[in-house]
Amino acid sequence: MTHPQKVFVARLVGLAVLGPDGESIGRVRDVVISMHLPGQQPRALGLAVELTTRRRIFVPMLRVTSIEPDAVTLTTGHVNLRKLSMRPNEALAVGQVLDSRVRTDDPDHPDLHDVDLTVTDIGIERNRNRDWMVSRVAVRSMRKGFRRRGETAVIDWRHIVGMTRLELARPGQGVERALIQFEKMRAADVANALRELPDKRRNEIAAALDNERLADVLQEMSTDDQSEVLASLKPERAGDVLEAMDPDDVADLVADLPVSEAEALLSQMDPEESESVRRLLQHSPDTAGGVMTPEPLILTANATVSEALARVRDPDINSAAASMVFVVRPPTNTPTGKFLGCVHTQRLLREPPANLIGGILDTEMPRLHPGDSLETMTRFFATYNLVSAPVVDDASHLLGAVAVDDLLDALLPADWRDNDPEGQAQ
């Protein structure tokens, strides 16, 4: 007779999920557990598995045949690809339960009685019925100096008080473990994960992210979700986050809001930061002027190749924006002086570093007009095989640049981030 398997849920996060033939299905991102009445043993219902397409699905624990140090193996490679959806009595172990506040009446740990504790991990164990039950809870004292720093106690679930859905809904739950989980994830993946959480938990995590990270995550959310998260922040913090976002994403957000709400958000930004957003709002959202970013890479003709490459290497510049440098006469802030042309990054890599970029300009680069439609832009990118293109007015001033990813955002339905494509089951 084999011994029941035991594992702590935090150890599962990031493990590869394999079918019986070793084919990769995705990676574990969390564990879904039941949260019923106090005194009723919680059960691990299944895994939140992230596919290569970034969609998260639910895989029942009954499908799990083994848990190894580097992978979880399932009984079948055929899984339901329907998007993960949480029920009222369910919670994500890592996303919601870890870092929550509990107490214990464990007679083996009298020093922890009447002490606020933080859940650091949850142990699950497979019983004879092949159900995975929550059997142990790892906790740490919140009282400084009460126990040795970092010391953790493992308590039988029966002696844990407060690990219920009602308690999880109370304010003040910690977010440390969730932040660690999200630390190495792409912004779009973090946005997907936050959508699965209750509003309270999502807002707690958003409040704990730094401005730049939160700005990156918000840019991967729908405008409705963006508005709700920003509304949960203090006005000054909301303004700081908006300033860290790309101006075109801020314009998309405020364009969908009532005028009074839009103005309230813009008023929280520095006037110089909000000015570029206000210029974008002058254009229809389905035109090049409404889709463009007003902050592409812009230099004057007397800049050197090495200076241009230094700008391109900036890790905060996305790949589309880094594909070319736009060259203008001063001023270099949009709307700029006369647009002279562009230099493709590939050309920069073939030139001596001391050369001036004014001598290697592509002056025949096709240009978009701020009033060009989505169809015109689509044909433009398909014709010229570009990932970024200049938007120039009738007076030859550079107003900004349209990146192909922003064009795709404009072409897709407004709620495309929230809805999965059809045919998700196999």
From TrEMBL:
Domain CBS, chain residue ranges per copy: 292-360, 361-422
Any single Gene Ontology cellular-component annotation: membrane
InterPro entries: CBS_dom, CBS_dom_sf, Mg_transptr_MgtE_intracell_dom, MgtE_N_sf, MgtE_transporter, PRC-brl_dom, PRC_barrel-like_sf, SH3_actinomycetes
UniProt superkingdom: Bacteria
Gene Ontology terms, MF aspect: magnesium ion transmembrane transporter activity
Glycosyltransferase as UniProt keyword: no
Pfam family, one: MgtE_N
Spans traversing the lipid bilayer: none
Keywords: CBS domain
Xref: PANTHER family: MAGNESIUM TRANSPORTER MGTE
Protein name (record): CBS domain-containing protein
Organism: Gordonia malaquae NBRC 108250
